[in-house]
Each structure stands twice: as structure tokens, then as C-alpha cells.
Design a protein that fits this description.
CATH superfamily of the largest domain: Periplasmic binding protein-like II
Largest sheet: 5 strands, mixed
Number of strands: 10
Radius of gyration: 24 Å
Number of helices: 13
Strand order of the largest sheet: 2-1-3-10-4
Structural class: alpha/beta
CATH topology of the largest domain: D-Maltodextrin-Binding Protein, domain 2
């Protein structure tokens, strides 16, 4: 005959068994989550779009834990990847071409911010691109996106690069401060400064108009990582695709995430301005395309600037097979 004590004991044992089973399942699931180390340029007013992949369960669904590191510019992130400190990074694709021309094994996996939001901002005394002759323009490291954008924009408007002084001045914030402080006459900076810029600073030329073929951000990895962790690379790209789709359809949450990341003050107009501009100009593509025409245009600019001796075969620099698998995995 079963006693009350026996029934209670059996119930406790049953509960303990369930808890133990749940703990084992949780531990196993946690163990299955692999760390993927990803590098980004220091967070700005577009951080909610870039960092959405680290929220919710976009990565967890793929069995990954994404650990991000921020860098002042993409050249530093490229070096960190080559040194084995990162599994991937995102930034301008120009660095991958330059690195591969010197024997590196960087691979472009896909590009998500396909319309450059940057532009050349200048003092109000500078009315046209031609007025930049003899002036100093703040850019970033050689071959970086700001450097390439400035050179391409100058060429489009018939101003030889030798007629201006291109000064490498850190990240967007540093270049903007140099412009506002009068250290330089113009600067290549993100459009996030537009709603807060003083009256004596104006947008001289928008990057999307001056250089429509310019790809702002691509995701890069390297041959060694892809050989060892190809499946994880596919899962990482699938997570990014899902996160970008979500960000583009959830403005309030994305803007709020940006505000949290950059610790913006109440009423800061930049996060919403950057988000609306990206959506308006279809700047972000969650399918992570690899547009050959734009990549080859970029190579042409690198050759003109003397950074490449000759264009490289895109088969050497890109790895489209990982994107193709990620599209299927993400349901795109």
C-alpha cells in the first residue's frame, strides 16, 4: 500500500529528475553554441542596424554566440582578422583587395550596406567641389572607404587628388570634430552629422550621388577560417540576414537599440534620421549581395590610385558559395 510519504517522495524524485534532465539539456544546448568573433567599426548612429544580430535569438537559432569587437577603422579590423583574432569583420571591401594583392587570403562573403551614407561636408565658404583645390580634407587610412570616396568624388568633378591635401584623421567623430574645429576645410563623414551640424557646415556632395557604385560595408573572412569553420560561416551569414530583415521592418526597436548602444541623450535626432535615410535610399540589402559590377568598379579606383597594379579575379577575392547556402538556411 502506497503511503502519503511515499507518494510525496515519488513526486520529489520525479521533479528532481525533470530538473536534472532540463539542466542537462540546457548545458548541452549551451555547449553547442559556438563563438563567432566578429569585428565592426566603432558604433555610431546606425548601430541598431549593425548590431541587431547580437540581440534576440538570431545567432542562437544558428547555434552561434556572436562576440563583437569595435575598431576605429576597418583597416585595423582587417589586420586583426589576418592575425587570427577575428573570424570575420565588416567594413569597406577595398582592404580585402589590397590585402589579397599582397598574398593575403581575405574573402568577401557578402555586402549589406550597398549605398554609402557618407558625404563630403565642408565649411559654408566652400560652395562647389572645385572650391576644394588647395584645401585640406579629412579622410581615414589609405584604401579605407573615406579615402576612396574622397578620391572618387574629386575625380568625378574633375579635381585632381594632387590639388588637395587628404589627411588621415581617425574615425567619423574625429574627422567631424576636425571640421567643426577648423582644423580641416572639409571631411568625409557619415550623414548622422547632418541633423546636428552647425549652420556653417553643409553637405557639399552626397556619396550616393558622387559615387553610386561605392559599397559601404561588406563582410569579410579569410580562407583559413572558412576551411576550418565553413558551416559556422554560413550560419553567421544566415543570422545576419535574419537580423537585417528584422531591423528594416522594426524602426522603433532598431532606433531604440541604437540609442542604447551609443548612449544618446533624449531627443537626439541622429538615430531616427540615419534609419529613415537608409530605408528611403534602399541602402541596406539583407540578402548580402556580391555585385560584380560594383566590386570591379572599386578595383578600377584602386588601380587608378596606385593601390593595385591590376584588377584581381573576383573568384580569388569573393566566396559566394557561403552566401548561397546562407540564403537557403535563412529562408530568403
Amino acid at each position: 500500500m502506497t503511503t502519503a510519504r511515499g507518494r510525496h517522495l515519488g513526486r520529489y524524485i520525479g521533479i528532481a529528475t525533470l530538473i536534472a534532465a532540463a539542466t542537462v539539456a540546457f548545458t548541452a544546448a549551451a555547449a553547442q553554441e559556438k563563438v563567432w568573433r566578429h569585428g565592426l567599426i566603432k558604433a555610431k548612429a546606425d548601430a541598431g542596424i549593425f548590431m541587431m544580430v547580437t540581440t534576440r535569438d538570431f545567432a542562437k537559432k544558428q547555434g552561434l554566440k556572436i562576440v563583437t569587437s569595435e575598431f576605429r577603422n576597418d583597416q585595423l579590423a582587417l589586420k586583426a582578422m589576418i592575425a587570427g583574432e577575428l573570424d570575420s569583420y565588416e567594413g569597406g571591401p577595398g582592404g580585402a583587395f589590397s590585402a589579397d594583392s599582397k598574398g593575403a587570403d581575405a574573402k568577401i562573403l557578402g555586402c549589406h550596406w550597398i549605398v554609402v551614407p557618407h558625404g563630403i561636408y565642408a565649411k559654408d565658404t566652400i560652395k562647389t567641389v572645385a572650391d576644394l583645390k588647395g584645401k585640406q580634407i579629412a579622410v581615414s587610412a589609405p584604401n579605407s572607404m573615406p579615402d576612396m570616396l574622397a578620391r572618387a568624388a574629386l575625380a568625378k568633378y574633375g579635381v585632381p587628388a594632387k590639388d588637395v591635401k587628404l589627411a588621415a584623421v581617425g574615425g567619423d567623430h574625429d574627422r567631424y570634430q576636425a571640421l567643426v574645429g577648423g582644423v580641416v576645410d572639409a571631411a568625409v563623414v557619415s550623414n548622422e552629422v547632418e541633423p546636428v551640424a552647425p549652420k556653417n557646415i553643409h553637405l557639399l556632395v552626397a556619396g550616393r550621388d558622387a559615387v553610386p557604385n561605392f559599397l559601404r560595408v561588406c563582410i569579410m573572412s579569410n580562407a583559413k577560417t572558412l576551411a576550418a569553420r565553413g558551416d559556422d560561416a554560413v550560419k553567421f551569414l544566415a543570422a545576419e540576414m535574419g537580423a537585417l530583415r528584422y531591423a528594416l521592418s522594426h524602426k522603433a526597436e532598431t532606433v531604440a537599440l541604437t540609442e542604447k548602444i551609443i548612449h544618446s541623450k533624449p531627443g537626439d535626432p541622429r538615430p531616427a534620421f540615419v534609419y529613415d535615410d537608409a530605408v528611403k535610399h534602399h541602402a541596406v540589402d539583407p540578402t548580402l549581395p556580391l555585385p560584380a559590377e560594383k566590386l570591379n568598379w572599386l578595383q578600377g579606383q584602386l588601380v587608378k590610385a596606385g593601390k593595385l597594379k591590376a584588377p584581381l579575379d573576383l573568384k580569388i577575392v569573393t566566396a559566394p558559395e557561403y552566401r548561397a547556402k546562407a540564403l537557403k538556411l535563412s529562408g530568403s
